[in-house]
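Continuing from the previous page...

OK, I double-checked the sequence for Phosphonate transport system ATP-binding protein against my notes and this is the correct one:
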Amino acid sequence: MLELKHLSKTYRTGDQALTDIGFTVPAGQVVGLIGPSGAGKSTLIRCINRLVEPSRGSVVLGDTELTTLRDRALRKARRRIGMIFQEYALVERLTVMENVLSGRLGYVAGWRSFLRRFNREDIALAFSLLEKVGLAEHYNKRADALSGGQRQRVGIARALEQNPELLLVDEPTASLDPKTSRQIMRLIQTVCRERNLPAIINIHDVMLAQQFSDRIIGLRAGEVVFDGKPEELTDDVLTRIYGEEDWAQVRKDQTDEDNDRASPAVDLAEGV
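Thanks. Re-ran it with the corrected sequence; updated structure tokens here:
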């Protein structure tokens, strides 16, 4: 379980990115984090794993207070948090298998980490995860030879290679076509349910968030302005989060755009 208490972030410029954020994410729950650009979504995710230092408040994962940890203790705690990035964050010249195994670097001795030597159990797990994400046959292909959807799947497998207790996902579909976006979100949802893994997904696509999240948290100007079920995300709530808009027309325009961008001839094996 993840618990945030009074989490705030003020930058040296004086900009207030987050204000008094507090909520709990139980095991197995997928949370869609939505809001306009600049609302603090990415900052919130990065405060949880301490890539950005919170100014105040606490982050508790299980029985560990993450905001008090330093140095080695912090590095050890970060092994418990899987991170999936918008830009994939793969090492392009390495193979798919090597990128997935990099999820174990925090667990191996320094010299083994430098030489990228892993035990049989780690390698077996990596093959199992690549099978899970539909990339087993690409294990020896360089990362820079993959499509965007395939790279995102490698990123998911790498995060799961850590055997995490929490999954943080930052804009996983921003660079993907509508069909691939749904496949990626469905994959994240499936692995979270199978592993009873809590997840927070920063996502700009409200329709995808509603379809694949158990819960929606809406941020505006660094504050939580909505926390509820996907079906409770009414037009009035969307206006509270994003501002005044003709939401019926927005949905229609997005549906039309998705239909225009969709590629029916692309299948799961070749197009993602």
